[in-house]
Amino acid sequence: MMKSLLKVSFWAVPVLGLLLTTTAAQAQDEVGEFLRAGRQDANKLLGAYVEPASKSLGHSLNGGWFNSGKAMKLGRFDVRVFATGAVVPDKDKTFDLQALGLTQVKFNPGNSIAPTVLGNDQEGPELTLVARNPLNGRDEEIAKINSPQGAGFSFLPVPMAQVSLGLVKDTEIAVRFSPKVKFDDFEGELWGVGLKHGIKQWIPVISMIPGFDITVFGGYTNLKSAYRGIDVQLATRDRAFASSQQLQEGYYDNQAIRLTTKAWTGSLVASKTLSVLTAYAGVRYSNIETDLNAEGRYPVVAYRTTAPYAKYVEDLENPVTLNMKDSQWGATAGLRLKLAFFSLYGEYTLSKYSTASAGIGLGFN
Predict the structure, then answer these.
(1) In this model, does residue 56 exceed pLDDT 80?
(2) What are the boundaries of the signal sequence (predicted)?
């Protein structure tokens, strides 16, 4: 049983990695351009740009844990393969540059709406990156860039595998796990654990209703991943301001984006079984926290604050440290069709970031 889960997870996590790092691979140049604005503004810009993807991913990880309101009996088990995804609301497909309080980025106030990473596939407003010249106290242009485009889709599907096992007292444990895997410039590992407990047994009136079940569920998923395809080198126009060490080949290697997502969820779910069909519904709470870090050295042009006040290349070490959190309540409904040891199921949760899940299961439950 665990061997089957490991096999499926080994393939599922690299696929997940490709989905997660589409943003990083597509936007690696923009990441470098953002960093030319300095540490403070880069964190604001990147945070506004990637936060909807963080929420979509986190709430997706909280989906697909169960496919009925009944806990499996002692010794029963199943192995599931499924995909779950959260839909980004329209209001989170763009962000307003004016709301960020940028200090080293100038833009046209009449054109300040930019796409987020899950927004439209079109470039955002033109941005002018500036640095303060200490000789005259004026902001001088360092470079012009466009705010990066969106991916062009608002649904981020996440494939996963899971094994569930029935315990005593109408209790069921579920485990998600993948060993650390590498795929091209991506590496990642995932694990999660959930517990479902039937409360019908503790409520005499409900326990008398045949085919009706009600359970409480709690689950936690942890995803760690890294993308090492970032390659932000000195721009040709900036080489005149760099030191001999900064000009050395390989000086700006080992750049990476590291992502850690922690997702907690709790549900109260009831189900009714009629022959091979089970319908279930309930309420779900989803809480997520994502840490995104840009690691390594990145070149940024600045002015020296002491004589001779000349331009130079500053090395920003580990310049981006973002912590993004979100939580939401939702109403969940789903159906499961079970034929012998094979089952198909799908569910939908209506919420701020609504999620949908669909999958197949094998086992005796």
Answers:
(1) yes
(2) 1-27
Q: How far apart are CA 144 and CA 128, in angstroms?
A: 5
pLDDT bucket at 28, cuts 50 / 70 / 90: low
For 27-36, 74-83, 87-96, 133-142, which range has the lowest pLDDT when averaged over its residues? 27-36
Closest CA to 356 of 60, 113, 12: 60
φ, ψ dihedrals at 42, nearest 5°: -60, -40
Q: What is d(CA 173, CA 107) in angstroms, rounded to the nearest whole number?
A: 53
What is the extent of the structural domain holding 236? 2-364
pLDDT attached to residue 13: 45
For 34-38, 285-289, 308-312, 314-318, which range has the lowest pLDDT when averaged over its residues? 34-38
d(CA 303, CA 305): 6
Percent of the chain with pLDDT over 70: 90
The set of residues, in sequence order, having a beta carbon less than 8 Å from that of 354 and lying 6+ positions away, is 86, 87, 330, 348
Q: Residue by residue, what is the 3-state secondary structure of 79-130?
A: EEEEEEEEECCHHHCEEEHHHHCCCCEECCCCCCEEECCCCCCCCCCEEEEE
CA distances from 74 to 59, 156, 164, 167, 213 (A): 30, 36, 11, 4, 16
Pairing label, strands 342-350, 94-96: unpaired
Q: Six-digit token pair at 161?
A: 């595998």
In the sheet with 126-133, reading across from the earlier edge strand, the strands are 105-106, 126-133, 138-146
What are 164-197's pLDDT values in tens digits?
999 999 999 999 987 777 777 778 888 999 999 9
What is the structure's pLDDT at 7?
A: 35
Task: Return the residue matching tokens 């997870």.
Answer: 9
Per-residue pLDDT, 201: 86
Q: Which of 209, 276, 318, 207 is nearest to 68 (CA)?
A: 276
Decide: 125 and 98 in contact? Cβ < 8 Å.
no
Q: Is the peptide bond before 308 cis (omega within 30 degrees of 0)?
A: yes
Instruction: Give dist(CA 24, CA 41) in Å, integer.
Output: 19
* Host H or E run for residue 30: helix 2-35
33 sits in which H/E element: helix 2-35
Instruction: Count the domains in the chain.
Output: 1
